[in-house]
Design brief:
492 residues, mainly alpha, Growth Hormone, Chain: A, 2 domains, two-stranded parallel ribbon, 24 helices, transmembrane transporter activity, Major facilitator superfamily (MFS) profile domain-containing protein, MFS_sugar_transport-like, transport
Length: 492
């Protein structure tokens, strides 16, 4: 009887495996990719807007740093908030709010009359950008397990597209029209998310988790039609249903959760989660706490290093001129050099994406991340002893290649270790911790370099990246080829 019941049912994972990666997933990838392009453009423009605003409004270096840091403060708040919203009310609702806030505040910041209004609007942009991981989780939940790593790398490549687009846009727009036009035009991708929002489906995994099986079947049927395949026969069931059946019908020790725990979890899911307190409690529960704390360390280090390297691309050259007491170049010459350096370094992420795609499903998430972080350390070592223009470009290019690959993989690993009920909350909080790194890195990259302490800045980046590599090495669980969990699994 048990075998017959099992053969007459299927899970979301079974449906995804039978469907493969077809036209439906391509559409999902395209929409989520636009969101990642929007986030990359809003982040990369900080490299160009800060120096221009400082020059126009006669700002101090601390005030210039705040234009970047305040975005990360907003992202810290937004990443947690949108994660909780998405886990409780749906992935679609989560990224709808992020698109509204990002596009609106991003466009209005182009008309900011003074420094205070610009800071306030960029803070709101940061809150909107904090919802970026929601799109990643949403896309992930439509991808079959065997190719999940590779396709998540392809998704992450949209970030590289966004950075190159922004560098090209700045190079074209800034010299003729100034920073306000750059802010306005950079908000366009966020508006595109709103334009196509009506046709986006909800995650069937989320719908199953909330007991909305009929709606989940509708989404899966649309997926099957677009991909020209047939869904497995029988009725759709969630992993929680399977776990409950196993608990009630068997006393085997291999059951992931006890019946009492499962019942508690089901009752919790039906109740409200005010402020995400229950979700945070699950992330710090004994089953997940080790993975959660190590993941926070990895996110902090990756964010600190990535955004620091992006800022160092412009700040090191400027700092070298200041500290060498050379003649100050013209503003146009300096800006042209800035656009060129950022444009060139942005291309480092293309081989970084290819490299992560080649290794993530072959060697696993842990080994891939750790090797990229330690290699990034190696690339930065020469800058401790010498900082000629050529050496600086080569070192920062290689370091950005590796750190972008590592950042890509950590965004693949994070949603894979958490159950569906707390997946976006888990990623959101980890991303928030990363934003703390983003808040601190402009202060390091700008303040230390401007005070002629470049060696100290480089050594600090080396230390943070190395400790992040150690944290990754101690991750308790490898997720390569594993199915996504709808129930809590002991990661220790």
């Amino acid at each position: 009887m048990m075998e017959e019941g099992q053969s007459a049912s299927y899970t979301v994972d079974d449906a995804l495996l039978s469907s493969g990666f077809g036209r439906f997933q391509i559409l999902i990838l395209s929409y989520a990719g636009i969101g990642l392009i929007a986030e990359a453009m809003e982040m990369m423009l900080l490299s160009f807007v800060g120096p221009s605003v400082q020059l126009e409004w006669k700002l101090t270096s601390h005030q210039e740093s705040m234009i970047t840091s305040v975005v990360f403060v907003g992202m810290l708040i937004g990443a947690y908030s949108w994660g909780v919203v998405s886990d409780n009310y749906g992935r679609r609702r989560g990224f709808l709010f992020t698109a509204i806030v990002t596009s609106g505040a991003g466009f209005l910041s182009a008309f900011a009359p003074n420094y205070l209004s610009l800071i306030s609007l960029r803070f709101l942009v940061g809150i909107g950008l904090g919802g970026g991981p929601v799109l990643g989780s949403w896309f992930l939940e439509f991808v079959p397990a065997p190719t999940r790593g590779t396709w998540m790398v392809v998704f992450s490549a949209f970030w590289t597209v966004g950075t190159i687009l922004e560098a090209s846009l700045a190079w074209t727009v800034m010299p003729k029209f100034g920073w306000r036009w750059l802010l306005a035009l950079s908000a366009i991708p966020s508006f595109l998310l709103l334009l196509f929002y009506a046709i986006t489906p909800e995650s069937p995994r989320f719908l199953c988790m909330k007991g909305r099986t009929t709606e989940a079947v509708d989404v899966l049927e649309k997926m099957a039609r677009l991909n020209n395949v047939q869904l497995p026969s029988g009725r759709l069931v969630s992993d929680k249903n399977i776990e409950l059946d196993e608990v009630s019908g068997s006393s085997e020790s291999t059951t992931l959760l006890s019946g009492a725990e499962e019942s508690d979890n089901l009752s919790e899911d039906r109740g409200s989660d005010f402020g995400g307190i229950k979700s945070v409690g699950k992330l710090l529960a004994p089953k997940l706490i080790r993975a959660t704390l190590l993941l926070w360390m990895a996110f902090f280090g990756n964010a600190f290093a990535y955004y620091g390297i992006v800022l160092l691309t412009s700040e090191l050259s400027n700092g070298n001129r200041i500290c060498a007491k050379q003649d100050v170049e013209s503003v146009n010459s300096t800006n042209a050099s800035l656009y060129k350096n950022v444009f060139i370094s942005s291309f480092a992420e293309i081989p970084g994406s290819f490299l992560s795609a080649m290794i993530v499903d072959r060697f696993g998430r842990k080994l891939s991340m750790a090797s990229m972080l330690f290699t990034s350390c190696v690339f930065l070592v020469p800058l401790v002893f010498s900082r000629t223009d050529i050496l600086t470009r080569i070192s920062l290019f290689g370091a950005r290649l590796c750190i972008s690959a590592s950042f890509t993989i950590v965004y693949i690993y994070a949603p894979e270790i958490y159950p569906t009920a707390v997946r976006t909350t888990g990623i959101g909080i980890a991303s928030s911790v990363g934003r703390i790194g983003g808040i601190l890195c402009p202060l390091v990259a700008v303040a230390l370099v401007h005070s002629c302490q470049q060696t100290t800045a480089i050594l600090l980046f080396e230390l943070v990246i190395f400790l992040s590599g150690l944290a990754v090495s101690f991750f308790p669980f490898e997720t390569k080829g594993c199915r996504l969990n709808d129930t809590e699994v002991d990661m220790n």
